Amino acid sequence: MDTSPSAAVYYGNLNYRNPFYRMSPFIGRTRELATLTREFDRSRPALVVLYGRRRVGKSTLLLHAMGKRPHIYYQATRVADPDAQALFRQHAAAMLGHDQLLPNVSGWEGLFRYLHQRAQTTHPGLILVLDEFPYLCDAAPALPSIVQKVCWMVAYSLANANGVRST
């Protein structure tokens, strides 16, 4: 990791809603931060997978890259799937504001579709971070395929909206 002064990036208190996020000098990771920032600045939906060894700063990197952009940062815990969905739903409501539709949304696919709709309407550029994703997968083994399905659904609907045809 480059720790030279030119690689230091300093930020203020950018994320007041996340109690785990305490700003301090962010040293290094300049290239990774620039890549994430570029991706988050795009006007189209995307799936970014960030993985690596434990305790190396992945969560902090994501929090810095999100900055003041609209986002849901959800840190999963080891709980049963219905509890995980309920906790995620509560967190999403707290971050996006309560609405009458969210309590009636069921299943992970329904939750992701709901968030996509909110990103298209009331929260453009919404970023969703599912930290500790393996914990969610332990409780809901189908979750990776649900994420894949929803991503393809979003990509397909955007392609059709833009007049792109697949062959």
Kindly summarize this structure in a few lines.
The protein has helices at residues 30-41, 58-66, 81-96, 107-120, 133-139, 143-161, and strands spanning 8-9, 26-27, 71-75, 127-131. The protein has 167 residues and is mostly helical. The protein has one domain.
Question: What do you see in this structure?
Answer:
This protein is mainly alpha-helical. The protein has one domain. It has helices at 30-41, 58-66, 81-96, 107-120, 133-139, 143-161; strands spanning 8-9, 26-27, 71-75, 127-131. The strands form 2 sheets. The protein has a two-stranded antiparallel sheet. The protein has a two-stranded parallel sheet with strand order 3-4. Helix 1 crosses helix 2 and helix 4 (107-120) runs parallel beside helix 6.
Mean pLDDT: 83
Oligomer: single chain
Secondary structure category: mainly alpha
Q: How many β-strand runs?
A: 4
Q: Secondary-structure element order, as H and E?
A: EEHHEHHEHH
Q: Give the strand content.
A: 5-15%
